Every structure is written in structure tokens, then in C-alpha cells.
Amino acid sequence: MQQTEKGTALTIAILTVSDTRTEETDTSGQYLAEVVGAAGHRLWEKKIVPDDIYQLRAQVSQWIAEQGVQVILTTGGTGFSGRDSTPEALAPLFDKQVEGFGELFRAISFEEIGSSTIQSRALAGIANNTLICCMPGSTGACRTAWENILREQLDSRHRPCNFVAHLKGRAQ
């Protein structure tokens, strides 16, 4: 893995889950791509897929199998509407669940949006030494997750621990 003045540069894929967003209207995916780059990481690919269990699973499975992808950030599909299916699509792919991600996201989000945070099914896991973090579709939710959780946990310099040591390209 490449070391920079900002720590270890990771390779990150971003997936927006939406039946309606386009590249022009995908503010959440655009936000994530910007902060990933600003933190010194490399963007592998950014895609938009419909909220469909099998299309989600297929895309994320492809990235999990790809030796170059170390982190997958998804935005959207974590609520309770009829088409929201990100947790059902991706949780079965996890080798290990990161229970604390959803718990911490909802605790932080409570300070911002109150009890409405209970309708977030944010989750994370590790599959084939790839960290997968699933966030709600709003840009505000992505900002909350990035600024309060992901920025530090994807920084090799963060102590006492971070996820970098558990990712592809590191001694396992």
C-alpha cells in the first residue's frame, strides 16, 4: 500500500443505490468521491445501481473479488421504503459484521435528526478483507458518517486502531 503524508492511500469504490438518481443528481456519491480524494485515497470506481437486491449483490461481489478494491462505500437503500434493500442484499456477503458502525452512526445521527435516526439501517462488514460501509442516501448522512467515523477509521495513523490493517494488501 502506498504511504502518503496523509497516511496509507486506500483504493475505494463508491456505489449509489437509487432508482432515480443520475450522475448529475447524485450529490451523496459526489460528496463521497470528493472527501475520499481529499483524504489522499484513490477512487477505483463510482457507480449508480437501481435498488435491486441482485444488482446490488452483483456489483459489490465484483468489487469484493477485485484485488485492487479495499473499501466499498454505499449510499442509499438503507431505509424502510418498499424498494430499500441494501441490508438484505449485502449483509449475506459479509464474512464479519461491524456491528459498531450502525450503532455509532445512529448515536451520532440522533444528535442531528433526533428519533428519526431509528429508521436508518446503516451497517458495515468485512468480506474478503474488503470493508463495506452502507450509509443512508442523503448527503447529510454521508457527511455524518464520513466526518465522525470513516475519516478516522480509514486513516492508518488513527490510534488506538483503524481498519487499514485488516484490508487487502496488508499482511493478514
UniProtKB/TrEMBL annotation:
Origin: domain of life: Bacteria
Q: Does the keyword GTP-binding apply?
A: yes
Q: Does the keyword GTP-binding apply?
A: yes
In terms of PROSITE patterns, this protein maps to: MOCF_BIOSYNTHESIS_1 (PS01078)
SMART domains from the UniProt entry: MoCF_biosynth
Which InterPro entries does this one have? MoaB, MoaB/Mog-like_dom_sf, MoaB/Mog_dom, MoaB_proteobac, MoCF_biosynth_CS
Q: What do the Gene Ontology cellular component annotations say?
A: cytosol
Alphabetized, the UniProt keywords read: GTP-binding, Molybdenum cofactor biosynthesis, Nucleotide-binding
Q: What does this protein do?
A: May be involved in the biosynthesis of molybdopterin. Can bind GTP and has low GTPase activity. Can bind MPT, but has no MPT adenylyl transferase activity.
Q: Which family does it belong to?
A: Belongs to the MoaB/Mog family.
Name the chain's protein: Molybdenum cofactor biosynthesis protein B
Q: What is the lineage of its organism?
A: Bacteria, Pseudomonadati, Pseudomonadota, Gammaproteobacteria, Cellvibrionales
